[in-house]
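Entry for adenosine-5'-diphosphate complex. Fields follow.
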Amino acid sequence: MLGLMMSQPLRIAGLIEHAAKWHGDTEIVTRLTEGGIHRYTYADAHRRSQQLAGALTALGVSMGDRVGTLAWNNHRHFELYYGISGMGAVCHTINPRLFPEQLVYIINHAQDRYIFFDLTFLPLVEKLAPACPHVLGWVLMSDQAHLPADTSLPLLLCYEDLLNEQPAGFNWPVFDENTASSLCYTSGTTDQPKGVLYSHRSTLLHSYAAGLPDCFNCSVRDVILPVVPMFHVNAWGIPYLAPLIGCKLVLPGPGLDAASLFELFEAEGVTFSAGVPTIWFGLLTFMREKQARFSTLGKMIVGGSSCPPALLKAFDVELGVTIRHAWGMTETSPLGTVNTLKSRQLSLSPDEQFAIQTKQGRAIFGVDMKIVDDSGAELPHNGVAFGDLLVRGPFIVADYFRSSSPGELTQDGWFRTGDVATIDADGFLNITDRSKDVIKSGGEWISSIDLENLAVAHPAVAEAAVIGVPHPKWGERPLLIVVCKPGQDVSPEELLAFFDGKVASWWKPDAVEFVNQLPHTATGKLLKTRLRQDFAGYTLAV
Ligand code: ADP
């Protein structure tokens, strides 16, 4: 027997319609790529998204077509999120920080029909265009005044002109909620980039989940500034969450340095933000140097890579900002787990609480997870056993877009994340490694992430990476690679002594190497494949 409730498909256009109707005068503020601040409202954003959908229709874009974006967090990118998906096409956000060869691969693989780009990326798209034969036109996300006098692009269109030619009032089509809405490629840390194709349904369910009190805990009274880029994993869902709850949204454009962010936090009364640890470390240094304090910022999400305890503690104790640690990936939309303490943990000492908060947190509803050993047997939730992390749920990838081996990804109904983790008795996930990075010493596993987190707690260390290097007796042993803070110095012996008593003695790295900088992926993660190449043939003193 079926239920007797209205059957309305979940659609992304419904979010902006809701915001325009019930929060029509709430502001979206953007720091423009062209310079200056732009302000308008959800009602304006809705009207312009409709004009954009009309313009795309006039250009011949139809349901299922991919339309690419190469853009910062700004109001036009926000309109593209709604205009493209709302009309039934696929909003393909492209990460401009990838290598040009990867960008060409992605654009051709996705078969993007049009690419919308910010002024910053004009030289980049001029370079890419000759290798992207499927692209019918390139749209500069600006006005006539900013169109280049001369360009090698085959067909250059102007965003504001496209919109101006359209009347208001595009009727959003109604279609199956499983229709594809947006596309994001993984950063190709370990392989060629792979496309994750989200649906309207998965996006809406993920947006509801993101707003929950134990997740982002945001309401209509918040002012959200996503530092996480809209060009990678939909800025962790914030461009959808903000209209869902109707709160003010602040989009920082290209200026992601600490001074620009702080200025915007203060000027716009930002209460909540989200970003990767590197961004927050930069902000912390700035706040300390300037002896500055936030007037309104009270909570932040950190994710994308492991959050060192030192960062959590500094923001909480020195700056009065609560950081929630979260884990996720492109394939999980991206939110998988978020860390909030349970009631009984509130009576623990501050240090015990920080130790729990350093973990990646508990599964949000919509994400089921388990850890398994090499034979696929499920491991206990005791916070000690670590194994491969598998997840499943309605906003987890089922297959990659135009995959060469369709149907193979989740044959047993679970997606293998490629992460290695423990889960404790309270359900808190702790990512100990990527499976390719885990160090296997004498048949036992050593967590490179735990060692890196400890190393950066040393006052002289700016950044650290730990990789396994061959060892005649143990198979592999950890090598610590360190970047020191400017003007700071520490000897290898002193640094290794710092680990004493903090980890099992056999986890202690065997050696330390100092470098000027560490290699990173386009999404700011340590590029350990490169480090392993750089240190191939490294011999440890036995
Ligand atoms: P990629 O495209 O490289 O897969 P994603 O942005 O999808 O990039 O990153 C997902 C990966 O990032 C996860 O599988 C995990 O290894 C890592 N990651 C994400 N959040 C965390 C976190 N809080 N702690 C540790 N690792 C994390």
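NOTE: The first helix runs from residue 12 to 22.
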